[in-house]
Fold this sequence. Notes:
globular, Immunoglobulin-like, mainly beta, four-stranded antiparallel β-sheet, 15 strands
Amino acid sequence: MMGGCGGDSSAGGDGSIDMGASSGGAAVAINELFAHGSSAADPDWAELKNLGSATLDLSGYSVRDKKTSNLTKLPSGTTIAAGGYLVILCSDEADGGVPDGLYVPFGLSGDKGDEFHLLDAAGVELDSAAFADDVPSDKSWGRLPDGTGSFIRLTPSRGASNL
């Protein structure tokens, strides 16, 4: 079962909502992945970044890892503020194991490598990222520059700009 959106997402100050598309393509990107969560209280996670200038509504969008059977819809009302971040906690615990926040019922495999895919409400893939088993347990796999660059090993910066 999936939890609701946590404090990492919010409505824009002007109340405008972007439904996910921009003139240059998708206004949202996979920004960072962390596959070495240590417990249900500190699970694996994926971070999305809103690249647009309006709040982005991700209601009905889906995410998955390497397994297509793990395709999971984001709940209605899931938004990311303009320029903001959305952290999705990834936990394969039977009950979700996550006390609060947005979560999906699959973990990311740091030991074997994995993938993360973002699909729009029509099922069109907007972004994906793959990492190998060589990302150290104290590092994440993220874009530099933030939101637009190539993926590299980073110091985890959950819910904040990549450094």
